[in-house]
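seq:
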Amino acid sequence: MLNTLIDLLQAELGLTVVLFALLGLFIGSFLNVVIYRLPVMMQRSWRSQCQELLKQEIESYDRFNLATPASRCPSCGHKIGAFENIPVLSYLLQKGQCKHCATKISPRYPIIELLTGIISGVVAWQVGFAWPLAFALLLSWALIALTFIDFDHQLLPDDITLPLLWIGLLLSLFGIFTDMQSSIIGAVAGYLSLWTVYQLFKLITGKEGMGYGDFKLLAVFGAWFGWQALPMVILLSSLVGAAVGVSLILFLGRDRQLPIPFGPYLAAAGWIAMLWGDAIVSGYWRYMVQP
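struct:
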């Protein structure tokens, strides 16, 4: 039975895309939890460590992690039931509000669910039903979480980036995405390249231009796709980041002194490199370099 299903998914790309797009909707619901709770968990841990270092009384908290407590309405405390937590559909049926107190629910939750579903479908379409698909989806889902956490807190948690780094290095042992030598060099070069830019910028301006999480995220892409992918990732992320930053300043009046997180642009560039990197490079050489 299992072999028949595997053969069917390998033969029918459309079915594979639909299946993983639906899976992505449910993963997106979990990512909403990660995006909200992980920074809170980290902040509580840092606060406890500081209090311990300063020999102050350590605050106690109710149990709070990615599984506990159950999701509740922040306004009335109503526990979200299973039928109220169906990705996208529940939001539409409840007209974007709490079933118990009618408080408006942020549209960001279904947007992240829908985005994760679409991205999962695109990955399945590009990669096909094979072992690399599982890891490409894992990286894509992690990048979605990192993107929104960085938007909210200017933070790229080590709890996500470091496991991704080790996974990329391990995958290279089996030649998935890249070979071991390219992966190791890519991880080192990815980290050091942005670290060097950071140090030079700090030396010249006296300011910190980016965070250490950005160095680790570029190291992740170096580990997953090899050092050869790094120039394209850096170029794409810089172009997109510059375009978005200028647009925010010119059209939305954003203060140019306010920091703009670089992680989301790195994440987008790395995801594009994973799916279309070879096509972009070959297209560049075909149309821009060759006479």
